[in-house]
Amino acid sequence: MNVKATGPITLGVIIGNRDFFPDKLVGECRADLLTAFQKAGINPIMLDESTTKLGGVETFQEAQKCAELFRKHADEIMGVLVVLPNFGDEKGIAETLKLARLDVPVLVQAYPDDLNRLDVARRRDAWCGKISVCNNFYQFGIKYTLTTKHVVHPSDPSFHTDLVNFMGVCRVVKGLRNVRIGAIGARPGGFNTVRYSEKILQRNGISVVTVDLSQILGNANKLTASDASVKQRLEAIKAYTPTGRTPDDKLVQIAKLDVVLNDFMLEHALDATAIQCWTSLQQNYGCNVCTSMSIMSENMLPSACEVDVTGTLSMYAMQLASGSPSALVDWNNNYADDENKCVLFHCGNWAKSFLPDIEISTAPILGTTVGEENTYGALSGRTPASPLTFGRISTDDPKGIMKAYIGEGALTDDALNTFGNRAVAQIGNLQGLMQYVCKNGFEHHVVMNASKTTGILKEAMENYMGWEVHVHQS
User: Fold this and answer.
1) Burial label, 416 (beta-carbon count in 10 A; 0-12, 13-18, 19+)
2) CB within 10 Å: which end of the chain, N or C, has fewer?
3) Under DSSP, is residue 471 helix (H, G, I), strand (E, B) or coil?
4) Mind listing the domains of the chain with CATH numbers?
């Protein structure tokens, strides 16, 4: 099930209330929230003001009504926002979530008091009430997220940021729990590094659909240049990227393979793919699949090479967090003697967003063994300066767990005279990061995304997915 990486999302909303606090605060809260939701792009599912007292939740009966409403919209609701305009009834709120059985992220907000209005008519005590609500969530086993400030008004800019980040958390969690990944071909024999456990992935809601590469190549070879589907894909490829010196017959080969890959994804409702490349495609079909992979990744259907299933899972998580494409890269080279810079590289399958000078080319390193004429389809291009979030999800089979590391840095415009898809990354304490990667058995592949989204990823993967997450400290 593909989860959109951008756009409005639906949240269930619980407005807490407590009988010995002023009810009018609940009514005022609703107006504040609608303004905040419109700004953030949130579709709220909340009790009508006539269904319970001002649409708040206090009693068990009101909790039942709110839970029933949430269950009716269970397929739409990606998260729940708990709002405390006053102390709130912690039992009523916790019971609502227990009865609703949504198992989605929960954000807890509480209003600040006005120091000059601590009278009976305006006193909130939500500072205290939030602690009680969270205590009940902890007792009930309900996972939850906190706002940056312990109490915050919905009009505060920090609350808008909290909402936007929470939307990212909701997307990542829903996406990871339902993702379908195509493993196309066998893992290349020389790449033990990309081994993974399908069983651990499945236990976490991640499905892998396998297919033999021969089936894909066989279907591609049945197509001809005169087929309408091939002509259509050929035009799409030419519209996507300059073709450089790529011969026409190689472009047709690339287009035929692209048709079959797209058909396979549609047939199995896949969100992402990991494709065998090195070196079966070149030897048995005569081109690289990089162009097709780049197009898929640019269209938010991430694709990784060398059947790196957990690599493409990492790409998917990052695009859900940021709303922008990800790329699978090698931690490839030192950058001269700068200990906090390194070269990121791959033959050429990065999304177009990373390659303003994109062009179809060849893969010279691979070409030394299979013939460069059999590697057309690899892309050439240099990634310019941009923000950087990097990371990697893996199955740790000896421990039987999912694990990940994430961090932030920057891509730079430093000189880099080489071929393929390439970038220079600057990361604080890079040597310490490489120590962590090597000591903890992570792959040589990492994922990059032009964003600053480690907070979203950590909250989604560690708090809600229950994975072991290391955040690199620069």
Assistant:
1) middle
2) N
3) strand
4) 9-177 (3.40.50.10940), 179-471 (3.40.275.10)
Beta-bridge mates of residue 360: 379
Tokens 């990667």 sit on residue: 437
Mind listing the pLDDT tens digit of every residue in the chain (474 residues)? Answer: 678 888 899 999 999 988 766 777 888 899 999 999 999 999 999 999 999 988 999 999 999 999 999 999 999 999 999 999 998 999 999 999 999 999 999 999 999 998 887 776 678 899 999 999 999 999 999 999 999 999 999 999 999 999 999 999 999 999 999 999 999 999 999 999 999 999 999 999 999 999 999 999 999 999 999 999 999 999 999 999 999 999 999 999 999 999 999 999 999 999 999 999 889 999 999 999 999 999 999 999 999 999 999 999 999 999 999 999 999 999 999 999 999 999 999 989 999 999 999 999 999 999 999 999 999 999 999 999 999 999 999 999 999 999 999 999 999 999 999 999 999 999 999 999 999 999 999 999 999 999 999 999 999 999 999 999 999 999
Q: Check: pTM over 0.85? Answer yes or no.
A: yes
